[in-house]
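Sequence in, structure out. First:
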Amino acid sequence: MIGLAAGSDAGLAQKLALTGENPWRRRKELIFQLAALGAILLGMVVLFALIIDVFLDAVSRLRPEFFTSFPSRFPERAGIKSALVGTIYMMVLTGLFSAPLGVGAAIYLEEYARAGRLNRFIELNIANLAGVPSVVYGLLGLEIFVRVLRLERSLLAGSLTMSLLILPVIIIASREALKAVPASIRYGALALGATRWQAITRHVVPLALPGMLTGVILGFARAIGETAPLITIGALTFIAFLPTSPMSMFTTLPIQAFNWVSRPQAAFHANAAAAIVVLLVLLLILNSLAIWLRGRLQKRLSW
């Protein structure tokens, strides 16, 4: 009887160890969960504290005149009209350059490129470029677009520089969306007589489009808040006119906020806080648009 009891206890201990019901193991798992939850809550508390502080500083300046006035040496008269319009123009041009190139590159690398050293070399460099500091892209844009191509400090030069910045993000996200499409979709289309191009454009890409769209919007969200590349290529910090063509000089909301923060007057700091709030609203609009479009596309595909 004693041997049977000892054997049953050993079997129970082994079963508890295999099923993960060891009290010490459960205690460690609980400690890890609490630590992870604490890290998330700490980050959220700091983020909300910063947002509330910025919003309280910006409340006094968020008036219609702030959106319809040009920058001024007098903080009470200063506005973000040129910076807001310049930001919108730059994002439109950046989207026209980066979205087709990024999606096209992802389709080629995922659907057409053959596995080999060259393909692995390209994939490795794209992954590395996604982590390169933004100021490096600013130096590249300064040398290629401003000096070699002689685009000067224009809206076009800034948009091309931002396109280089977000291209790796779009390519990686689009490739992951294409990988998520089951191979049976491709084989089924080919078996029914479709060409490879027809299978990709009519079956694979529509299914991967929500993920591609998310990658594009994430790239835009990164570009809209960048300052270092634009300062490097020589974007102006004080403009009292609106850009009229891609070759016009320009400024953006991050650069305008940076200019106001660097001034000693507290009134300019309030203007900078208001510009940051407007920039946050634009980011929320972009992300909300991405979520809405992704949900709409997924519903359409599920029909």
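Second:
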Amino acid sequence: MESSTISLEKLQEKYEKLQSENAYLREQLEWFKRQIFGQRSEKFVETTYADQLLLFDVPKEPLTEEDEPVPTKKRKKPKRDGKNAINLPDDLPVERQVVDLAEEDKICSETGKSLIKIGEDITQKIAHRPGSYFIKEIVRPKYAYPNPTEKGVVSAPLPETLLDRCRADESLLTDILIKKFCDHLPLYRQSEILSRQGIEISRQVLSQWVLRCGKALKPLYDEMLKQILQSNNIFIDETPLSMLMPGNGKVHQAYMWVIVGGAEANPPYRFYTFRTNRRHEHVIDLLEDYRGVFHSDKYGAYEAFANRKQATWCPCYAHIRRKFYEAESGDPKLRKWVLRKVKYLFMLEKVAWKRSAEERLRIRQEKEVPIIDELIKVIQDKLINGKILPKSKLKEALGYFLGLVPHLKNYTSDPWSRLDNNVAERAVRPLAIGRKNWLFAGNEDGGEAAAVILTLVQSCRAVGVNPREYLEDVMKRLMSHNAQKLEELLPKQWAAARQQSNGTGDHA
């Protein structure tokens, strides 16, 4: 009797284990199906709490229509042509082509009189002529002294140039860099495009030019990191980037880190740095002297840096929301409640950022902190006392949240800190698009050059500066510029100086 009881207990235990594993595998299967066939958006929509929005009496004055966190009806946008819209610059040249009647057709066949011109039908079409390249011929007259001397022949020195003894002008170098790091066009395609114009430049030569440009522009790159680390708020993220290993040609997974910063509410600068691996010490080296507020996800390197207590860590609530969004089984009621509370936080932040810094802090302390406290209490109770499958996405989400408890309210104490790390996430996107086209870095030097050029190009785009105009101008001036005033050549300062000198901005 005792042995049968033991066997029944073992069977029951085995059954529960299999049931748990089955639920976990079904949850994984549903997640994979959603990744392939379903909607990827994390938008959380709920229709049962419209009246609860009245609980958020955030501003002292009534909310305007513009400040409304969740409008009851979507306002209809004015109809536009959408995908059919075409916008052309005002200074686009116009070449007139006249398609007229034959002279005999301008005479009426019945009366023999000439037809009278009463107007014109005009049809406009966008046309294209292949991009033009030309030889920039620099002529330097040589002079000899009238009387025979040992001074020899004299001529004017060559203008300053970024790359010494390079056959490419700064305008061509800029075109190559913009097409690769802004338009994501690989060098081998650029070589093919040039060849169709009758210009044969191998991919290897183009690659050498890119590497040399990266090294020559590095002083600006280092100055930008210095400016970023002096700001009070930074945002950091990393993404994988393939690199060819020297010798064997195999692909190795390296990483590109991005740090977004600058002394403003919307940080203007994007700093990219290439590393051959994802070790924690890279973050420590980058942020060793930083003492402000940093935003990131929960990667262990950022936790390790936060544990040094030298900087304030603001974890990303968008990542917290994603964890619970993916936890579709286990406790649907709890999941729905957590997502609703996190949504409230984002709604309140949307309103808070339209207010002054002081008002923003008041909203956070009075309205957002209680929500966070409630989340902590309920999730702690669920993880301790609730029945949760040991292997489930819900347990992962609960553990992820509770591991961040000491830092969850840090953003509420600083008016310029943010609820999420989306600024850095957006800065990663251009790199993610680019690597789908050029696939990998040829070597470590190539990855470092890519980081330098991406830093300048994407920072230009972030501050509304035309990266083509910026790079071409800076390349011509960098070698002779005062090394103690390199900040003058950073994109934002460059644009301000340009605007001050000619009264117009150079915007993309």
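Remark: Strands lie at 143-144, 153-154, 233-244, 251-261, 269-275, 293-296, 312-315.
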